[in-house]
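Q: Hi! First time doing this. I have a protein sequence and I read that you can turn it into a structure. Is that right? Here it is:
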Amino acid sequence: MPNIFTNNNTDIRHNEPIPLLKRELKGDAFIAIQQQIRYALPNMKRSIYHLPYNPNLVKYARELRHNMTPAEKKLWFDFLRNFRARAYRQRPIDQFIVDFYIPSYKLIIELDGYHHQHPEVKDYDAERTIILESYGLEVIRFKNHDVLESFPKVCQAINFKTLK
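A: Yes, that's right. Below is the predicted 3D structure, encoded as structure tokens:
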């Protein structure tokens, strides 16, 4: 079973080399990921009402809310801030901070800058998406450029995802 809690391709708990997750993991892989999350990270807070999160990320998430990128500012202030359902920005979920989260639709919106084009970052984003989807969440991604240059299309795509 692959282990997702890695640091330089090493299992944090046992300091052993382990394989990285691949994009093609489905089905049983999601169950394996959930088990690892449940048992490997006892420091995460959980309840029946909230997704697990690392409390150490709360301070950092607050800083990110105060230092948003231009694309994040545009999407938040011009659309999501007054969205028909409550939306959160820079929300800790698991060991990550997601850009935007709409809990009533189980929707995560990620905005990707230029550095997300690098192969290593793409692989990390894919692994992160697998983990977040294992909680029953849907992750949609937009490039910063799309938010700034094609804002109506981005809003339309988010509206479409929340009408289902």
